[in-house]
Design goal:
Blueprint: E1 2-7, H1 15-31, E2 36-38, H2 56-72, E3 79-87, E4 96-104, E5 107-113, H3 125-128, E6 138-140, E7 143-149, H4 169-175, E8 180-185, H5 193-208, E9 212-216, E10 218-221, E11 224-227, E12 231-233, E13 239-242, E14 249-250, E15 254-256, E16 280-282
Parallel strand pairs: 1-2, 2-3, 7-8, 8-9, 15-16
Antiparallel strand pairs: 1-14, 1-16, 3-4, 4-5, 6-7, 9-12, 10-11, 12-13
């Protein structure tokens, strides 16, 4: 499976414009041989949407634009993973869910909502979203994948001395047979954040001996700055591809195996252009 990592700069509230850009990126990824393309957390709505999620019309628009993205990419032999705001079907409690979707052949074939909602530092997600009660394996092009959303991957009991949450979605998903982790993110920048991310995901890759794909958004929204710096790691926790920081980027031309520690490809030389077109591919 060849995976394109689409590190984009979404605009909060511009759902139509965001989906237009995602459609163009999907077509470009497919033209370059990708079998799957991965977008950041809440890539359809932009992050953070804050009080917008309390508007029923906003939830309707999020679902409508997700379905439009499915229609616009229906003719592509491409799996599309993206983030959007879903509507909870529960009779009580918060109505919005921070969710990921898998689109294939014009249909939304899998949905997964975020379980661990951060409510510290610059985050206020527990105020706006309902947490998922469970996480399920996502099958992408025949491969069982742990599809996680940002904070869901930040609760490894072997990494943190004091954890904020009781459950670890990553541990649960690898425990039932995941062969890789794909994590979509809207992770703001601060000093030392890039090193911390690398350490956290390296620990996961090594613990489970599985590759990791991490896709982050870039840009600035509501006083938050997002650096991007998306990456892919092999099962030994070695970075085999990394996007640039503070600019849009799409990664390409590396190979790694789902179930071995050996990286199949070599580092590609970075072109000296503003946006690099890249494919991450697995053997």
């Amino acid at each position: 499976m060849r995976i394109a990592l689409a590190q984009l700069n979404p605009t909060v509230g511009d759902l139509t414009g965001n989906v237009d850009r995602m459609t163009r990126a999907s077509r470009e990824a497919a033209a370059r041989g990708a079998e799957a393309v991965v977008f950041p957390e809440l890539s359809i709505t932009g992050y953070p949407p804050r009080d917008l999620v309390e508007k029923p019309s906003f939830l309707d628009s999020s679902e409508r634009e997700l379905e439009r993205l499915a229609r616009e990419t229906a003719d592509l032999d491409l799996s599309v993973i993206c983030g959007y705001v879903a509507r909870s079907q529960a009779e009580t409690g918060k109505r919005a869910l921070n969710s990921a979707a898998l689109i294939e052949h014009g249909a939304v074939v899998f949905r997964q909502s975020k379980m661990l909602l951060p409510n510290y530092d610059v985050f206020d997600e527990a105020r706006y979203f309902r947490p998922a009660e469970r996480e399920l394996l996502c099958t992408v092009r025949g491969a069982p994948v742990a599809l996680t959303i940002c904070e869901d991957a930040w609760n490894d009991r072997r990494y943190w001395k004091e954890r904020l949450y009781q459950r670890d979605p990553v541990e649960e998903l690898f425990g039932v047979g995941a062969e890789m982790m794909i994590c979509i993110n809207a992770s703001p920048y601060n000093m030392g954040k890039r090193a911390m991310r690398s350490n956290i995901y390296r620990a996961a890759a090594r613990r489970y001996s599985k590759p990791v794909v991490y896709v982050n958004q870039v840009g600035g929204n509501d006083q938050l700055v997002f650096d991007g710096t998306s990456f892919a790691m092999n099962s030994a926790g070695e970075v085999i591809a990394e996007a640039c920081s503070f600019d849009e980027d799409i990664l390409h031309s590396h190979r790694f195996q789902f179930n071995t520690r050996k990286c199949c490809g070599k580092y590609a030389k970075r072109p000296s252009v503003a946006i690099r077109r890249t494919l991450i591919s697995s053997c």
